[in-house]
Amino acid sequence: xxxxxxxxxxxxxxxxxxxxxxxxxxxxxxxxxxxxxxxxxxxxxxxxxxxxxxxxxxxxxxxxxxxxxxxxxxxxxxxxxxxxxxxxxxxxxxxxxxxxxxxxxxxxxxxxxxxxxxxxxxxxxxxxxxxxxxxxxxxxxxxxxxxxxxxxxxxxxxxxxxxxxxxxxxxxxxxxxxxxxxxxxxxxxxxxxxxxxxxxxxxxxxxxxxxxxxxxxxxxxxxxxxxxxxxx
Amino acid sequence: xxxxxxxxxxxxxxxxxxxxxxxxxxxxxxxxxxxxxxxxxxxxxxxxxxxxxxxxxxxxxx
Lengths: 232, 62
Fold this sequence. Notes:
The complex is a heterodimer.
Chain A: E1 2-3, H1 8-20, E2 29-30, H2 38-50, E3 59-63, H3 68-71, H4 77-85, E4 90-94, H5 102-106, E5 109-110, H6 114-121, H7 125-186, H8 188-193, E6 198-201, E7 204-205, E8 217-222, E9 225-230
Parallel strand pairs in A: 1-2, 3-4, 4-5
Antiparallel strand pairs in A: 6-7, 6-8, 8-9
Chain B: H1 2-6, H2 9-24, H3 30-61
Helix pairs in contact in B: 2-3
């Protein structure tokens, strides 16, 4: 900020930026803003600000209202050239809205008054907070909807998976049941229960008459156990 | 019970299938038939127990 630190313009600018954006860091380069020495001091301040090691986002030159003569320093060619040479963007507000100086015409941006310069330079904290609050509410509602949809999808998927597995289990049970019935039929003991007998000679199962001769000893397996017999 | 935990459903099913194939082969020895028959029943019980456990797991989760 290039201005006279004792001026009302300085006070207005600092007050308004303080309200709108309290964290804004302002370095003040004091300079006369009227009189014979003003142009040289303003040019020196501009050059110094441009040489700042980190660099500024913007340079602001403000001066309150006054007579045409009071403001005439801002029509000085040296200021115009220094503004034109500035690498940092410059915002200039001199006098009232109706006042127009060469400095303002040369600047990257002109503000009608020092207060207006403060408004142009800074976002309003409350507006920004409100906007963020609205964005936050919007995001919460979107997120809420996404979660509801995801939950409903999961519920459906879960039920589909459960039903699918339950169905598979039912089918498997039916298959096992039918195999079980078949296995029961294959049980040789079941055949014995129906009155048939199994005749063995040693380890050979006798399936034909020709395998036996008179006097052979055989084992007869019945449903409740084995008994021996001799062939006549 | 430990068998059920060790073997997968598919492994038990494959074993049962091979027992059933043995019965279908035609050349069936009676003593072996008794053994195979018991084996088949045991496998069937294990498979059913497996399905019971799986069903309980699903019921618990849903």
